[in-house]
Amino acid sequence: MKPTHIEHIGIAVNSLAEAIPFYENVLGLKCYNIEEVADQRVKTAFFMVGQTKIELLESTDPEGPVSKFIEKRGEGIHHIAFAVENIEDRLREAEAAGIKLIDIQPRRGAEGLSIAFMHPKSTFGVLTELCENKSITKR
Ligand code: CMX
Predict the structure, then answer these.
(1) Which of 28, 56, 79, 88 is deepest in the core (most CB within 10 A)?
(2) Which atom from ligand 1 is nearest to the alpha carbon of 65?
(3) pLDDT at position 39
């Protein structure tokens, strides 16, 4: 697949308001965007570190994936997102390699990226996202 870089690291938190001061006041990063991704039932806050982002995730729905994650595992690293080119082709390669896909086709994620997740049970326990900086209209 040859990802170009780690696009972002997703971190599940109970509260953006409680977590953001750590990143801003202790690490000295600047939160440059807060965005709700309705279909993922999360509110996200972004910080840039080099060419990689930290994406804090607060659930907006007790039945949503981030609420379920925190309930089972507590706050912490939720997923790693790799930047790739031609994401549709990369998904077909993953499928051919026997990886279980959560998203068979890319959809629109935060910041307008095309994103797709692979199932953590296929990726050694780490929820793994592919993303491409290319907008698609369908969410
Ligand atoms: N990382 C590693 N393992 C995870 C996980 C994660 N983020 N989320 C769930 N799991 C594990 C669980 O611990 C559980 O393992 P065990 O069976 O060993 O207990 C197993 O996967 C099944 O978990 P579950 O709680 O029953 O949850 P579901 O199967 O219903 O859903 C998943 C799990 C990964 C398919 C679902 O969370 C999903 O589709 N995630 C992709 C979308 C997403 O996470 N969106 C939020 C962020 C979006 C954004 O960045 O904008």
Answers:
(1) 56
(2) 37
(3) 87
